[in-house]
Specification:
Number of domains: 1
Largest sheet: none
Number of strands: 0
Helix content: over 70%
Number of helices: 5
Strand content: under 5%
Structural class: mainly alpha
Length: 165
């Protein structure tokens, strides 16, 4: 029974590593490539492009990874309770906390901004400018934060198995 439990724990941890890595990559791509380049486009193009991205990202592939990342990290920590040494368990708890915080920031920060952008009136140049001004800087700050947290989750999950004495 221990071999089966260890196998399940390893699979769950691997899923956590992969899903958090995928999210960190998506968020990183926005931080270092998409958002910086979007600074150079006009307000109408910016709002249209971001609304298109918001619609495209809501698909089964992304949503399954987005939900699996925090769930698998929390599950890894729970599965390690009483079975791993304190160092390994500690790394898993930190990874779970980082992944949950990244999820929470997305849900409480980025998603409401995305929805507001989708609903914003864009019928005049001034409204487009105001919409972008209210969206771009806060969205980028939240994205940078979740990038760091998702990367930290990935790193701690990779380190965790090596924490055993």
């Amino acid at each position: 029974m221990t071999i089966v439990f260890d196998c399940i724990s390893t699979i769950v941890l691997a899923a956590g590593v992969v899903t958090n890595g995928l999210l960190a990559g998506v968020f990183f791509a926005f931080s270092c490539a998409i958002s910086p380049e979007f600074r150079h486009i006009d307000d109408r193009s910016y709002v249209r492009a971001f609304c298109a991205i918001n619609g495209a990202i809501l698909n089964g592939w992304f949503l399954s990874v987005f939900l699996a990342a925090p769930l698998t990290t929390v599950a890894s920590a729970i599965l390690a309770v009483g079975r791993e040494d304190a160092s390994t368990f500690g790394w898993l708890v930190v990874g779970a906390a980082c992944s949950m915080l990244s999820f929470g920031i997305t849900a409480a920060g980025n998603v409401p901004l995305n929805r507001a952008l989708d609903r914003a009136s864009a019928d005049t140049a001034q409204r487009l400018h105001d919409t972008r001004k209210g969206f771009e800087a806060p969205w980028n700050r939240w994205n940078h934060t979740r990038t760091v947290l998702s990367t930290a989750a990935l790193i701690t999950l990779v380190i965790a198995p090596f924490g055993q004495s």
